[in-house]
Design goal:
Blueprint lengths: L2 H4 L15 E4 L4 E4 L2 E2 H7 L2 H10 L5 H12 L6 H9 L6 H12 L11 H26 L13 H10 L5 H14 L6 H10 L5 H13 L6 H10 L4 H13 L18 H17 L3 H17 L5 H11 L7 H22 L16
Antiparallel strand pairs: 1-2, 2-3
Helix pairs in contact: 3-17, 4-7, 5-6, 5-7, 6-7, 6-11, 7-17, 9-14, 9-16, 9-17, 10-11, 10-17, 11-17, 12-16, 13-15, 14-16
This protein binds acetyl coenzyme *A and oxaloacetate ion (OAA).
Acetyl coenzyme *A binds next to helix 16.
GO biological process, one term: tricarboxylic acid cycle
Family: Belongs to the citrate synthase family.
Protein name: Citrate synthase
Length: 368
């Protein structure tokens, strides 16, 4: 067979890896994480449970869960040099680039960096999960010339993350919904960022490098950057009618509508989007303001009718984050912080069953 026949643009549908971590079963419309269904997990479990499932391959009992949460919270400290570095970044730096810089700089503090053992990689993953919320929030704050915030050890992991973002202790419902968003973002089989991280890890490179590449991948608006783009688009309109008009104009100009479509689900709703839509409704009911939900539903209807396209998770995560009072620039860094659990699991799996990624090309250059 010639290489030309094998070429699939964008590697659409190509199997890139064997994995025991997760699988999008499109026939049964299920997102499987280590044998469990993600949507069921989102109703019964929290983010810490999923971190345990991803890194320790099973859901935790109470003691294991408390132990894991302690491992993360005991890693909250960020070296002062890294905070100084973040404060030096120019003010137009995107928080994803601040996060990428801070994450990359952490590698120098790992004295055991050449150790690729399971134990060393897992303790690295716990350290990253502990530190990334503070790096995320503080890169945003320091770049803007604001004071750094310190984690609150008395709060649970996700509640502390939200507390550092908004500066106030979240209500239970807010903490629950934010935690649910982290859970839904935690792992999703082989998106571009996971592929990037695995490709980097396959050279025997370390977890910091693999995840730093993952941040760069996730920043793009065809991937994680879409959640921010959705919110900027929603904010362009002040009413349902204005939003409908905006979408129609964009469609006439053949613009892509952020938050719609998906390489794997393209003609079906991302099951995670449905859960986030329910959370948006819950928040709208709580706050007695249904405008964003009504706008999003109107957009969903137009995209289904005009393009046969359905929302992905980013479409409903954006208005949820807005209603939680989160600055737009933090939406994609939050997605990455949550995805750190999944990415770390993939780097560990790649290191354990490694073969270097090195594909070939179809040469279409000058004849020779
Ligand atoms: C959590 C996540 O990361 S989910 C993804 C978040 N990204 C987005 O929401 C960005 C908007 N969506 C998209 O750009 C795409 O749907 C992607 C990148 C997610 C998937 O893309 P691909 O599988 O490569 O499909 P591709 O971009 O080739 O689209 C196929 C067709 O559907 C159209 N299409 C796909 N998504 C959209 C969209 N959001 N708005 C309008 N048209 C779209 C394309 O224009 C194309 O039409 P054509 O065949 O007439 O040219
Ligand atoms: O699976 C993908 O390609 C993108 C996505 O939804 C995710 O990373 O959560």
């Amino acid at each position: 067979m010639s290489t030309k026949e094998q070429y699939v643009p964008g590697l659409d549908g190509v199997i890139a890896s064997e994995t025991a971590i997760s699988f999008l079963d499109t026939e049964q419309e299920k997102i499987i994480i280590r044998g469990h269904e993600l949507i069921d997990l989102s109703k019964q479990n929290d983010y810490i449970d999923i971190v345990h499932l991803l890194l320790d391959k099973k859901l935790p009992n109470q003691e294991e869960k408390a132990d894991l949460e302690k491992k993360l919270t005991s890693n909250y400290h960020i070296p002062s040099n890294i905070m100084d570095l973040l404060a030096l970044l120019p003010e137009h730096t995107h928080p994803m680039d601040g996060l990428r810089t801070g994450l990359s700089a952490l590698s120098g503090y790992d004295e055991d960096i050449d150790n690729r053992s399971l134990e060393a990689n897992k303790s690295r993953a716990y350290a990253l999960l502990g530190k990334l919320p503070a790096i995320t929030v503080n890169s945003y704050r320091l770049i803007q010339g604001q004071k750094a915030v310190q984690p609150n050890q008395d709060l649970a992991y996700s509640a502390n993350f939200l507390y550092m973002i908004t500066g106030k202790k979240p209500e239970n419902v807010e903490a629950e919904i934010f935690d649910r968003s982290l859970l839904l973002y935690s792992e999703h089989e082989m998106p571009n960022s996971t592929f990037t991280a695995r490709v980097i890890a396959s050279t025997n490179s370390d977890m910091y490098g693999a995840l730093t590449g993952g941040v760069a991948s996730l920043k793009g608006n065809l991937h994680g950057g879409a959640n921010e783009a959705v919110m900027y688009m929603l904010n362009e309109a002040k009413s349902e009618a204005e939003f409908e008009e905006l979408l129609h104009k964009k469609l006439v100009k053949k613009e892509k509508i952020m938050g719609f479509g998906h390489r794997v689900y393209m003609k079906k709703m991302d099951p995670r989007a449905l859960v986030m839509k329910e959370s948006l409704k819950q928040l709208c009911d709580e706050k007695g303001d249904h405008l964003l939900l009504e706008m999003c539903e109107a957009g969903e209807k137009i995209m289904k009718e005009e393009k046969g396209l359905y929302p992905n998770l980013d479409y409903y995560a954006a208005p949820v984050y807005w209603m939680l009072g989160i600055p737009i620039g933090l939406y994609t860094p939050i997605f990455f912080s949550a995805r750190t659990a999944g990415l770390a699991a993939h780097v560990i799996e790649q290191h354990e069953h490694n073969r270097l990624f090195r594909p070939r090309v179809n040469y279409v250059g000058k004849s020779y």
